[in-house]
Amino acid sequence: MASEALQPLTCQDLVELVTDYLEGALRDVDHARFEEHIALCPMCQVHLEQLRITVRELGQLRERDIDPEILAEMQMRFRDWRSGD
């Protein structure tokens, strides 16, 4: 039986690893598995490209560009999400 490290990624696995992939934080074996999956899965290719566009666009956004009420709500939702509420 092959070890888990050698098994192909599922789409769900890819979704869970995509942030680490984009940040260059995957282990070599996981990076290779990610690349293998993305080469064969058009749906995940689209997902990855959408995330790259989102990161690029949001990277240009400054805090002062966001309505203060919306910023406060986003921060509250993030705190709630992080605390598991």
How would you characterize this protein structure?
It is a single chain. With 85 residues, the chain is mainly alpha-helical. Helices cover 69% and strands 0% of the residues. The protein has four helices and no strands. Helix 1 runs parallel beside helix 3 and helix 2 packs across helix 3. The radius of gyration is 17 Å and the shape is elongated. The model has no long low-confidence stretch (mean pLDDT 88).
Summarize the structure.
The chain is mostly helical.
Topology, please?
Blueprint: H1 11-22, H2 28-40, H3 42-59, H4 68-83
Helix pairs in contact: 1-2, 1-3, 2-3
SS elements, strand count? 0
Q: What is the mean pLDDT?
A: 88
Portion of residues in helices?
Answer: 55-70%
Which structural category do the helix and sheet elements fall into? mainly alpha
Largest sheet properties: none
Please report the number of helical segments: 4
- The coarse silhouette is elongated
Spans of at least 5 consecutive residues whose pLDDT stays below 50 are: none
What portion of residues belong to β-strands? under 5%
The SSE order reads HHHH
State the separation between the terminal residues, measured CA to CA. 40 Å
Using only C-alpha atoms, the radius of gyration works out to 17 Å
